[in-house]
Design goal:
Layout lengths: L3 H21 L3 H5 L2 E8 L7 E2 L1 H14 E15 L3 E14 L4 E2 L3 E11 L2 E10 L15
Parallel strand pairs: 1-7
Antiparallel strand pairs: 1-2, 3-4, 4-5, 4-6, 6-7
Length: about 140
């Protein structure tokens, strides 16, 4: 029989899976489910922070404008799960076919997730996406996990 911690970890992994599914289907409604209403996101594009579910969804909607079809891949999800909060990190890549027909393999980024158990559901209350930079301040986008 799985422990409560194992059950919670499986639920959190399913939340990450819902992001993968929602992006693949270009489904903004489906993407609402894993995030808390007051999520704070430190995404790769300005401003320094995006506050609230609508701001997070607006970022994903921007990606939909550029891609005809898209795939979101998440690798090496590592989690630390407590009773009411959890955090994790992973590597992620958005790839696909752009609206102009060009295929792109995208770039790998680092993702950190903060989860909180709210009304029995594990929701993302914070995420941060980043790309490494070289010492000149330029993003290094050709690295792979």
């Amino acid at each position: 029989m799985p422990t409560r911690r194992e059950v919670d970890e499986a639920k959190i992994r399913r939340q990450v899976g819902k992001i993968v599914e929602g992006l693949g289907a270009k489904d903004l409604e489906g993407l609402k489910q894993p995030y808390a209403k007051d999520v704070v996101s430190f995404d790769v594009e300005p401003p320094l922070q995006h506050v609230g579910l609508e701001a997070k969804l607006k970022n994903w909607a921007k990606a939909f404008l550029f891609f005809e079809s898209m795939t979101y891949e998440v690798r090496d999800v590592t989690l630390a799960v407590g009773d009411e909060v959890a955090f994790g990190h992973a590597f992620a890549r958005l790839s696909g076919t752009l609206k102009n027909g060009t295929a792109t393999s995208g770039m790998w980024v680092r993702v950190t997730y903060g989860f909180q158990k709210i009304d029995g559901d594990w929701l993302i209350v914070h995420d941060q996406v980043s790309a490494p930079i070289d010492m000149s301040g330029k993003a290094v986008v050709d690295l792979e996990p």
